[in-house]
Design brief:
Elements (H helix, E strand, L loop, with lengths): L1 E10 L2 E11 L4 E5 L6 H8 L7 E6 L2 E2 L4 H7 E4 L11 H11 L4 H15 L14 H13 L5 E5 L7 H17 L1 E6 L2 H7 L2 E6 L2 E6 L1 H8 L3 E8 L2 H9 L4 E7 L4 E8 L6 H10 L3 E7 L4 H10 L39
Parallel strand pairs: 3-8, 3-9, 6-7, 7-8
Antiparallel strand pairs: 1-2, 1-4, 4-5, 9-10, 11-13, 11-14, 12-13
Helix pairs in contact: 3-4, 4-5, 5-6
Bound molecules: adenosine-5'-diphosphate (ADP) and magnesium ion.
The site of magnesium ion (MG) has 5 residues, from helix 1.
């Protein structure tokens, strides 16, 4: 459904999106995760034909986002970070207007509008002025607009940003439902947002894709060792010496306490050292109060990847200045503009 190859967007010598490639299959719910400024919105804007890449390509349903942008626009629903809504229009009037711009034929329009109003849970709001809606309902109106023409692909840029916890829960429920019927690319800087909904996570950091996989495989794949925690009462130096002899040991640290000391034991992935540790302790007549494995979470991985800065070897050019291909027709940097009103989305 989406094919992105070497996609790059540069702003005055700085790569906001730096040579990324990824694919999204039909039916997937992909969480596009990254800290603020990572390049999520820039990528999504290129996918939704808002502006062209500096180089590289983005294709949706086989159509190129630059050369076949009309075909692409018909097939996607895009909800930008800041949803531009007409404050003085009533919800249903606005949705009808947007449906018209999206090319929904006149006779199909009112049923299309009724359908999204019920799907998104806007029934009680349909006659309200958009300007009078709460942030949660405005966001829902934005979602309704994005799907009114029944797109095959839905691109949502931080759909719950700025909502309160109750509204977040409701909008998430709506998104989950939408995920059942369309392919979904959903960006967020909040891990928990995608952990629950996404079947796959694309982690972007400083304009580059740094991880790509199911939440489970990312956690497993990033792990190179297992970590166990043991609280033992006994002579610390002797215990330490014993633990150092364990098979497959990769690291050991001790936090000595008055009575109980905490031993953090890292081992090979294949090794479960718990039985050995328990046996040691008992055989030596010491006491064991806790023995557990510390499971790594997706959050650990996210923090690890997005806080470690890759150190370039001496003399190497900075990553952002090493394009993969020259860009003879690179357009000049352009200022950020609002999604053009009217025609451009139809
Ligand atoms: N119009 C622009 N001109 C210059 N730099 C920009 C422009 N738009 C975005 N950027 C920069 O590009 C980087 C990526 O931005 P963005 O895609 O909005 O990140 P995200 O959506 O992940 O928060 C940021 O460093 C941002 O400051
Ligand atoms: Mg953004």
């Amino acid at each position: 459904m989406i094919e992105v190859a070497n996609l790059t967007k540069r702003y005055a010598g700085f790569a906001a999106v730096d040579n990324i490639s990824f694919k999204v299959d039909k039916g997937e719910i992909v969480g596009f995760l990254g800290k603020n400024g990572a390049g999520k919105s820039t990528t999504m804007k290129m996918l939704s034909c808002f502006f062209p890449p500096t180089w590289g390509s983005a294709r949706v349903a086989g159509f190129d986002c630059v050369t076949d942008s009309m075909e692409v626009r018909q097939r996607i629903g895009y909800m930008p970070e800041r949803v531009p809504l007409y404050e003085d229009m009533r919800v249903e009037e606005y949705l009808d207007y947007r449906a018209r711009l999206r090319g929904v034929p006149r006779r199909a329009r009112s049923s299309a509008v009724n359908e999204v109003i019920s799907t998104i849970g806007l029934k009680d709001m349909r006659r309200k002025l958009i300007g009078s809606l709460s942030k949660g309902y405005r966001q829902r109106t934005g979602l309704a607009e994005a799907i009114v023409h029944k797109p095959e692909l839905l691109i949502l840029d931080e759909p719950t940003a700025g909502l309160d916890p109750g509204q977040i829960r409701q909008v998430r429920e709506v998104i989950k439902e939408l995920g059942k019927r369309t392919t979904l690319l959903l960006s967020t800087h909040i891990l928990s947002e995608v952990e629950i909904t996404a079947t796959r996570i694309l982690l972007i950091h400083k304009g580059r894709i740094v991880a790509n996989g199911s939440p489970g495989s990312l956690v497993g794949g990033a792990q190179s060792s297992r970590r166990f925690r043991a609280e033992i009462r006994g002579p610390v130096a002797m215990i330490e010496a014993m633990l150092k002899g364990l098979p497959g040991l990769k690291g050991l640290s001790v936090a000595p306490g008055e009575e109980w000391s905490v031993f953090t034991i890292d081992s090979d992935l294949e090794q479960d050292l718990r039985a050995d540790v328990a046996k040691f302790v008992v055989d030596n007549g010491w006491d064991l109060r806790e023995l557990s494995e510390e499971k790594r979470t997706l959050e650990d991985l996210f923090v690890q990847i997005t806080t470690t800065d890759e150190v370039a070897p001496p003399g190497a050019p900075a990553p952002v200045s090493t394009p993969v291909a020259p860009a003879p027709e690179a357009p000049p940097a352009e200022p950020l503009k609002e999604w053009p009103e009217g025609g451009a989305t139809s």
